[in-house]
């Protein structure tokens, strides 16, 4: 589904300094896979996810989505692919403070003006799956940190994405919230959807079908 071919990503700091976040990474994530990306802090995990999710462009190399070279597509096209095919979960839930739970979940629909009445039904269904059906009208400050994470998870599913890209989705949450999140990934994956999850927690990585290990921006191991 997503192919990274000889990807290098270099960030510039000031005029002189360059950070080589990824070096010559070639990886394929197949449709229906559940892949965990692990490695020490600074090893390039988030950068890997940003390449796979078309959030950033590589400095060198080619990114293919469904076989199509998307590396140099215009921003508008890349945004369209992300909005239609991908669901993102970041470490910080970044909910809109003035919108309630359900409104936050429906935001990707309202923002792209693709909202339909059936979205509300699906939004409520997903919120029920993550145990928040009684908190539809709470504002973010009226939710615990773990609940806010689960709202962000429900929001990522509102478009029924073909691929979920999650960056440390269970970082700093308790065991219960972490298990709700990972169980939902597994459920989504069991329906044939692709999941790419960055984590530093090897126990959670073991839930995935494959583990990609990075070290210093390079591929260290790729284990089934
Ligand atoms: N926008 C940026 N500008 C400059 N350097 C960056 C940028 N994003 C990442 N880096 C650098 O690239 C390297 C890889 O960062 P990345 O966030 O991908 O690592 P990571 O494995 O996800 O780390 P962590 O586990 O701490 O989140 C690091 O050295 C980081 O400082």
Rounded average pLDDT: 92
Span from first to last CA? 17 Å
Q: What's the architecture in CATH terms?
A: 3-Layer(aba) Sandwich
Residue share in helix: 25-40%
Percent of sequence in beta strands: 25-35%
DSSP, total strands: 10
Nearest-angstrom radius of gyration? 17 Å
Shape by Cα distribution: globular
Structural class computed from helices and strand pairing: alpha/beta
Compressed to H and E, one letter per element, the order equals EEEHEEHEHHHEHEHEE
**Poorly predicted sequence stretches spanning 5 or more consecutive residues:** none
If helices are DSSP runs of H or I spanning 4 or more residues, what is the number of helices? Answer: 7
CATH topology: Rossmann fold
Ligands: adenosine-5'-triphosphate
What order do the strands of the largest sheet run in, or round the barrel if closed? 6-7-8-3-9-10
What does this structure look like?
InterPro entries: AAA+_ATPase, ABC_transporter-like_ATP-bd, ABC_transporter-like_CS, ABC_transpr_LolD-like, MacB-like_ATP-bd, P-loop_NTPase. Keywords: ATP-binding, Nucleotide-binding, Transport. One of its GO terms (molecular function) is transmembrane transporter activity. By secondary structure, this protein is α/β, with parallel strands linked by helices. 34% of the residues lie in helices and 29% in strands. The chain contains seven helices and ten strands. It has helices spanning 45-52, 75-85, 101-111, 117-129, 145-157, 175-190, 202-205, and strands at residues 2-13, 17-29, 34-38, 60-65, 68-69, 86-89, 163-167, 194-198, 210-215, 218-223. A six-stranded mixed beta sheet has the order 6-7-8-3-9-10, with helices on both faces. It has a four-stranded antiparallel beta sheet with strand order 2-1-4-5, covered by helices on one side. A hairpin with a 3-residue loop joins strand 1 (2-13) and strand 2. 41% of the residues are buried.
């Amino acid at each position: 589904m997503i192919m990274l071919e000889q990807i290098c990503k270099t960030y510039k700091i000031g005029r002189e300094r360059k950070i080589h976040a990824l070096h010559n990474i070639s990886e394929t994530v197949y449709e229906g896979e559940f892949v965990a990306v692990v490695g020490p802090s600074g090893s390039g995990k988030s950068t890997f996810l940003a390449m796979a999710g078309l959030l950033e462009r590589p400095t060198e190399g080619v990114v293919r989505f469904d076989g199509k070279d998307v590396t140099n597509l215009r921003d508008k096209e890349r945004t369209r692919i992300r909005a239609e095919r991908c669901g993102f979960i970041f470490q910080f839930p970044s909910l809109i403070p003035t919108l309630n739970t359900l409104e936050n979940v429906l935001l990707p629909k309202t923002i792209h003006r693709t909202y339909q009445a059936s979205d509300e039904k699906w939004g409520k269904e997903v919120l029920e799956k993550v145990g928040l059906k009684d908190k539809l009208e709470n504002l973010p400050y009226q939710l615990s940190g773990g609940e806010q994470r689960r709202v962000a998870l429900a929001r990522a599913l509102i478009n029924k994405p073909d691929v979920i890209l999650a960056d440390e989705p269970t970082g700093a949450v308790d065991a219960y919230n972490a298990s709700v999140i990972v169980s939902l990934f597994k459920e989504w994956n069991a329906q044939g959807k692709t999941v790419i999850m960055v984590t530093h927690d090897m126990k959670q990585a073991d839930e995935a079908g494959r583990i990609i290990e990075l070290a210093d921006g390079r591929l260290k191991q790729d284990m089934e």
